[in-house]
Model the fold of this input.
Amino acid sequence: MARKLQSILMGAAVAVGLAVPAVAQENELRIGYLAPLTGGLAQTGIDMRDGFLLYLEQHGNKLGGMNVKFILEDEQGKGDVAVTKAKKLVLQDKVHMLIGGVLASTGYALAPVSTELKTLYIPSIPAADDLTQRQLPQFPYLIRTSWSSSQPHHPLGQYACDQGYKKIVTIAADYAFGYEVVGGFQKTFEDCGGKIVQKIWPPLGTKDFGPYIPTIKADADAVLSLMVAAMPAQFIKQLRSAGYKKPVLGGGTSYDEFVLPFMGDETIGDVSALHYSAALDTPKNQEFVKAYRAKFGKVPSYYSENNYTTAQLIDETIKKLGGKFTTPEEFIKTMQAIKLDAVRGPISFDENRNPIQNIYIKKVEKKKMFGYDKDELWNTVIKTYPNVSQFWTYGREKFLAQPVYDKNFPPCKFCE
Amino acid sequence: MSTQNLKIAIVIVCLLALLVLVPMGNSFVVLLATRAMAFAILAMSLDILLGFTGLASLGQAAYFGVGAYLTAYLANYYGFGLKWDFWLMIPIGMAVGGALAALFGLFAIRATGTYFLMITLALGQCVWGLAYRWNSVTGGDNGITLKGGRPQFGIDLTNDINFFYLTFAFFAATLFALYVLIRSPFGKSLLGIRERELRMRILGYNVWLHKYIAFIIAGAFGGLSGVIWAHANGIVTPETVVLTTSVDALLMTVLGGAGTLVGGAIGSAIVFGLREYVSTLVPWWQYVLGGVYVLTILYLPSGLMGIPERVRQWRNSQKKRETTKMTTAPSSH
Amino acid sequence: MNTQFWVVQAFNGVSYGALLFLVGAGLSLIFGVMRIVNLSHGSYFLLGGYVALSVIWITGSWALSIPIAVIAIALVGLVMERLFLRPEGRAKNIRDALIALGIALIIRLSLGRLLPQMIPGQIGNIVQVTLVVAIIAVPIYLVLQRISAVAIEADTLRQVLMTVGFAFLFQQAALDLWSGNPFDISPPPALTQSVSLGGMSFPLYRLFMIVGALVIGILLWLAMEKTRMGAMVRATVDDAQMARGVGIDTNKISMFIFALGAGMAALGGVIGGAFLGVYPGLDFEMLPIAFAVVIIGGMGSLGGAAIGALLVGLADNFGKALFPELAYFTLYAPMVLILALKPTGLFGRD
Done:
């Protein structure tokens, strides 16, 4: 009995002992990186990680002169696991900052952790509008390097209106990200005189669009789709093979380079909006695409670019701070003042700590690009809206006075 | 000391060790232990069915999910359960879990074996379907975030250590309650049903009613674990009620050892340990998890708690082999 | 909502049902013969899609990818059944050897960089890893031989759980081998067109799915009803003990059916790959739907699987189109009712 007891206690002691914090090294920047590496979202996580690591590798594993200790954790695409891992990173590994998460819900789960533990959090992908809008005051240690969901879709609504479309049907994944994308589009499109005549909400993860496609109103001028992960390819394929011939517009993730290489020729001519395109014809981007593709064998997606640029932004910030990480407050203040010419174009920050950046209206084309010898699908930039803020042209106060975009906001005045 | 008392003593010592050692670790360890214990309540509730009644359910996540969704819904839309009324939320969660089980039991109890597995799977999927699509209530894929945080009633449960103590209390209480249950005459008849259903029937036991009550009790404790899980996580999503959650609970119970109660807790600790601790060390943890399942099922049908028994069996067979060798050896001369 | 709406929706529902038939029929047969619920059936579907993708990448031929994927996954099913679900004689040794190798590989991985590279070069590294794994595996194998697994054949619950363990292993292996990109299988251009009829257009690929499922269904039905093998399978489904009594090798039947079921799921994966895509998570998305098919139609019955697939396809389609908030509930609630009233499904036999 006594021996059994002893062994049990020892076992428990070992288990706790394993969790002893690592010894910190001088002038080391410890980065806690959260990305899904298993489960359905694994590839997004891998793209994110690869983007960040590419920058680190190109810069001798140093950011702003500090040696980087990169600690990667698998958040498994689940908000609760992300929270557990984040606490591990902060309390056990003593990281200076948390980066990552994919889903909006993960962003919302991690932000309070950063407040609670007084640790810097950079959502390098999570795009939920309110992280840097109405809920920002609750998250003093958060600065976003990616985008807010509605940011690219305000210009897209304007663009659609400029094309002369009068009536549009939206079909979008039925969750918060879908609501914010459709909401942003609807706001500017209707402010300009257009009408959203129908909103269709297939559940997130829908692959058989059979039940939804026949319900699309025939008198609309175009369709706006917002699909994610494995949904886009099936949607457009099924839509076109059901005989739909009108123009299709897409929210950012409907045609971004995460899915585009796996889509068919039926996507040619479709127009979408995002803050990055791999086909952006600038020397900086060409260099990035080539380096990334040579190393990882695939065209970088916006997941990759956003994290590459996040690393670059940290690099610049630490440089300005004199090669050391002082406090999260000072870090945020410094980063917020930075103006950077990044791969995706010029970036600065608004007072709500979200990037002000170019929004690209892109058209899917089949062509050769950057000297690659095969015809491939690329998101050719056909129009650039420069320096777009998350508040579009409405101004911060006026924009924040309206509620966050939701399934029923703006209300669908022209739906029957 | 009888073996039974020895076992109880070991469990109590382990519990005390947990209570003392876990808060000494950092918040990550505390959080991990909290999550594993909240889920262990679910695994133990399932053990009442699997281990003590012989009913393998693939839908236990339904009660877990209902408890969790109700907690999140009431807290978010009515601010209920965030002060002292948290203590009301516990019986409410259990009642709702039990009530759902009472409804589902009407459909499920008649089936046995694989058919029971199938019908509980279908019932679990019904709840998942509602959680996933009934947006106006469940928030659909967004789930419900508990914006008000954890309850505060003099004791601040937003503090991870306080919450650990609370979860520990419920975990220990569940263990105790279920232990009392299985030692009661009712529990004895459940075991009888598991071993020899026909005989129990001939002896005049109402087998259906026994199973039905066991099903409701398991549902009630499933609901309890859901209430705690909602507060442990701060968010409830369809992921809570997805098929794999039910599968997890079943595998944990079998991994630790069905019919032992603590087996579910051990299984939960191992699975959470692999998924959330070992995954911080190595990227190929999923192979370890899958491998552990396959190996346990092949070599340890009565789970980790069955190891001593397996060793004893093995020793006996070795002895037997040796004695047969000795008796056969001279005859070969 | 006019007639056109109903016609198109019904057509879509039937074509989805055709795909579900391919997945459900195999699951149903496996249940009928072995009385086990195979929770790795969704994995066969996904793996079938991935194997087909690899074949298409290498040879460029979609037509070729179908038989190869079907055979490959049928073999996977065969190996699983022979070595893990119904192991006998030497199969047990092979199983122990496989497990020993697996454990050795994990031990080698955990040693990681603790073990310096002693043989130089890329090939040297591979040689070294192989040697180390082999050396670790031998003692483990010997130990496994002594403790021997507990017979699993008679215990359906453990067999079921074993299939879940495999589903998890397959999931991670697929992610490591094929990455998690959202792939899509492109069928020949001829099948991507659509035909117009009465102002409605019908995608040819959906027609192809219906015709394909019909052909497979009829072939299977003929095989079951008209051949000796089929008669033996039916006898085993009805009463395995009796079948053994009259000299039917039920062991061989179970092996054959398991491989056939896995192959059919893979066929579904290839055909469905052009329609649902091929991506991680598809396995556990298909699994419950396949169950709905089997449960509604009745386990172990081919005709039942066909009716079940049709009903589920239509219920799913109309549920989503008409009652979006109750979409999945309308799918699983009938399943519960049918099970409660007739536990063996609409067409199942006890």
